[in-house]
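@channel anyone free to eyeball this complex?
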Amino acid sequence: MTKIAEEVGTPVYIYSRATLERHARVFREGLKDAGPIHLAFAVKSNPNLAVLRILANQGYGGDVVSGGELERCIAAGMKAEDIVFSGVGKSQEELLLGLDRGIGQFNLESEEEGIQLAEIAASRGETASCTLRVNPDVDAGTHAKISTGKKENKFGVAIDVAPDIYARLSKLDGLNLRGVAVHIGSQLQQLDPLEKCYRRMGQLLTELRAAGHEVTHVDLGGGLGVPYKPEDRPPSPAEYGAMVTEVTKDWNVTLMFEPGRVIAGNSGIMVTKVIRIKPGVNSDFVIVDAAMNDLMRPAIYDAWHHFEAVQPTGDMMIASIVGPICESSDIFAKEREVDRVATDDLGIFRTAGAYGATMANTYNSRPLVPEVLVDGDRYAVVAERIKPAAIMAAEQVPDWLK
Ligand code: LLP
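replying in thread with the prediction:
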C-alpha cells in the first residue's frame, strides 16, 4: 500500500481482485437453491472497466442506468444479452442504443416509457424484452436519500395499478413483456423489508398469471447492505439467498438480481495522506489530502467510513478528519477515536469500493482521483488521475470575451 501511495500518489482508490471475485462467488452461492438466476452487477456502484471485466469473467452481466454505463459494459466484455437497462429517465437515444446493442432486457419505469420503446422497436421490426418495474410501497428502513420503494418515490409504477398497466403494455407490438422488476433501496440492514417486498411481488405474480399473462422473469433488484463499522451485522448473502429461495419457491421463473454494494463495497479502500494536524476547540483536526469530492458519501448521506492508519503505532487519538475543501461538509469523521496519525502518515478509509470513485468530482479544481487494482503482489493503475490541466483543456473562453 505504501508502495502504491508512493508511486501513484494520494488520494487513491485501491481495489482487490481477489475480494471482488470472492464476493461475486459468495453472492452466487447464496442463491444456489433458488432455481435459474441471472446476475447483473449494478454498474453505478463501480463502473471501472477493470472491475467490470472481473465481474464479466465471473459470469455477471450489468445493470445499467445510462447509455454511458451500457457502453462500459460492452467495452469491458460483458455480453449484450446479459445487460439489463434500469433507470427512471431513459432518453429516446438511450432506448435506441439499447436496441442497437441488442441488450437482454429493459426494466420499464412507466407506461409511457413502454409505449415509446414499443414504437421504436416495432418501427425497426424488432421486439424488446422487458419487465415492468413496480413500486411495492415498502419502507426499506435505510437512509431516505437511498430509499426507492415507497409510494412517494419516483421509481416504478404503483403496485395497485401495475396489473392494468401490464395488461395494456403486453398487447403492444414491439414489446416482449416477460415479467416484473423491483428495487426498494440500498444499504439494507434487515431482510424484513426485502421479504415483505418479495411476498408482495409473489402476489402480483399470481394475479398476473390469473389474468393470462405468461411471466417468466422477476428482477429482485439489489440493495443488500454491507458492514461499514466493525460492529455492523447486515444479513449475509447466504441468509439473503435462503430467504429468497423460501419466498420464491413456487414462482417458477428466472430470478434476476442487481447487486452492487455487496460485491464492490468491501473490495475497495481509499488511501490518503495526512497533510497536517491543526488544533481545534473540541479535538484536533487531521487534515488529509482526500476530500469530499473524492468520497462524497459522508457529506451527502452522513455515511461512516472506518479510518485506520496504514502503520498504526497502537496509540489512539480523538480527532476530526477533514479534507482541504472550503466547506464544513468536507468532513469524514467528527470527533472520532482513531489511530494516532501525524503529518505525512498514510491512512485508509474502508468500504470505499462502491459509490466511491464513481461519485468523485473535481470540485475546488482538484484532480479526479485515480483507481488501482491489486492482484496478489502486482498492481495496475486502472484509472489515471485526471489533472486540472486536462479538465481546463476541455473548456474555452469565447472569442467575444478575449
Ligand atoms: N438496482 C437498481 C435499480 C438501483 O437503483 C440500485 C441502486 C441497485 C440495483 C444497486 O443497489 P445496491 O446493491 O448497490 O444497494 N450512492 C448511494 C447509493 C445509491 C444506490 C442507488 N441505486 C450510496 O453511496 O450509498
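from a first look: The chain has twelve helices and 18 strands.
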